[in-house]
Amino acid sequence: MKKKYKLLLLLLFANCFAAQAQDLERKAEKKITRLETLMSKAEREGFDVTREKTIIWFSKEFLKIARWDENNTDFIQSTFEEFKPLKGDKAQMAKDLPNFERKKVVEILDKGIANLTRVMNGTIVRRPVAKVDWENIKVEKDQFTSNGKPVFLYDYFSKSMGNPTLDSNIYNDHLGNIDRIGGVTPLLLNEDRTFNQRTLNRIVRHPDTKAGYLLLWNTNIPEWIEKQEPEVTKGVNTFMGFDIDNPLMREVWGSIMQKTGEVTKGRKAVQLGYILANEPHWLSEEGNWAYKLGEMNELSSYTLDKFKSWLIKKYNNDLAQLNKNWKTEFETFKDISFVFPLKKETKGSPFRYDWDRFNMDRVTEWFSFLQTELHKTNPKGDTHIKLISHFFSDDERSHGIDLESLTELTTMIGDDAKTRERDIRFDKPEFWEANYSYHWQELCVSYDFMESVSPDKIHVNSETHFLSSVAWRKLDTSPEYVRNNFWLATLHGMDAGLSWFWARDPDGSPEARFENNIYSKDRALSESFAASVNMQPQVANELTQVMMDLNSFSEEIMALRRQRKPIRLFHSETSAINKEHHMTQQYDLYESLFFEGFPVGYATENIIKKQDSKNWDVLLVYKTEYVTDSEFNELQNYLDNGGTVIMDNETSLSMNEYGYKRSKTLKKGKGNLHILKTDEYETLKTFALDLIADKLPAVVLSESNGAAHKGCTWRIAPNGKGGYVMTIINLGKTKARLNVSMRNGEEIKCTDILTQQPLKTMFDLDVHGVLLLEIEKTKN
Fold it and tell me: Gene3D superfamilies, from UniProt (predicted)?
């Protein structure tokens, strides 16, 4: 009898699920019909309904997806099980997913109906969407343009592989329509130095109709190379499957780059550039995540020889000085040896400085070589690298990535910066949770730095991790969270973002490559599907909606992000290499300035040397004890030429790269030197703001959020009519009560220019809230 009741109970639950599914499906279909009817009427009355067309498209797609997921619960369950950090009953999650997707479809339809109704009855006024002309993109200095205006491009990286890029079911205004030629690997070159004709034909015959990119996949080493060069796979990492110091690989890639440049020169399909590497890294210290994956566990003889040559040049052939620094007794430079991977305790030693600096220099030289070879046949070919941006904002420095040098080298800025809520592998709160709703540090710190290094370059994030990553996934991500992230990234410089990742075929099923690999060793792929955008209609739709809004106001956004950076934080990679927590310390000062209404800037030796110092008013030097003589001399030169430096105390700049006490101290010269004799970053901030009081924004934003810490970042720009455009982004964990005023006390009025609704000068902004305002002075 118990078995009978159990079966009846299971049958009852199944019937309930089926009934709920049918009810949600019917409800969604009715709302689709209702919205389409409303759209037809709106178009007849002259209203733009581009936004609603996207809602309809995603609604229909996700109803189709829900049906597939419902009929393939075993597969969906396996995807949840593959992603180990995701907590919960995976079988139940798979059963619940289809109706979750249907509910979210209903939600975006309800929102769409409500918004269009408000548009039609005059409650709100929307600017028509500035649609992207994917086939006629122009690359102009620091921006892409479409139809004569700046445009922010959007799409997905690793997008439903196996489908042609001309398939309008996947490449369209809704998902994005950025082309990709496909990957180039060492397999392109044969042992006899001819080219693989099949691969070459694929590239040559690829349609050239719209803007796209080409990616170098630095894996798949041919057998003939491994036979000729047994050491070729020493010192490798996940996406760099060969030793970059190997002479044969240099020859191979030189030939490939020249041929690739030749056959793609002048084509639209590379307007977003040649991506020279996918997430390169050469982490050299034992015990880190890369070490545990077997990366960089040994070095080739070529790398060791190159290091010795680097040391000879660095020490000007003075072996005695090296021995003094390293506390060794080598008789010749050829005798130099050391333990590799590096021991953690070597951090901060002269030996460790030399290795970390060399590691960065050799990596920069490799990418310089690739770019040079490309430019031999395609001199105007744009380049960037999918750089892991937290390698700058984090304290670790054994990875070989000099973000400044690589940003300066390539013709575009490139990265795959991420944001997230709490790392789902952690049970305890992270440090940022005390004040913020999500972790934005990596994105903003790295972007502000790269934009300071190369302010006139286009910025491409070729794999945005704002929606999901290995450390964070949330099935019920709010549309407001999505909007906040993409608005923030665009404000800080992003011109194109390819989100990770779209893996649905037109019939709603996961792409064949994904289905085939779900049980494979390709962990990055098999773990990515669960709780991703591929299961969240509200996320996919909002990503496109926010990009439509950003493009409709692209000129205002560009004006906001081109604002002058009056205060520059002096950055020394020398201190970052030597100190255990240098970037953590620097973040305190950065964060304190982040909410003052202007972009935070950086200055380095090269920035001071190469850029016009009129672009800033003051340099802040904080807890930067180690600098090279060259860095120190450039700061002194800046002062000699009338610059202004604020320094925490005389401990900063006091040592060279090897920890030896510097005999010189900064002198004010023709400029102004303020040594505050403090360890407190707030003291530097207050002093700097007082010093440039007349350069601060004309508009003031006051915030009350129930905490002592600000949560809303903002910027203003003149609107050309005597007023200002202003954007406000709430990164805080609570609703904020805000007050907008003029610094000079003039009366103003505010308008939400996304809706043309008037706004009082005091108002609330919800968690994840984003505003774009017009501020006008009122006549007395």
Answer: 3.40.50.880, Glycosidases
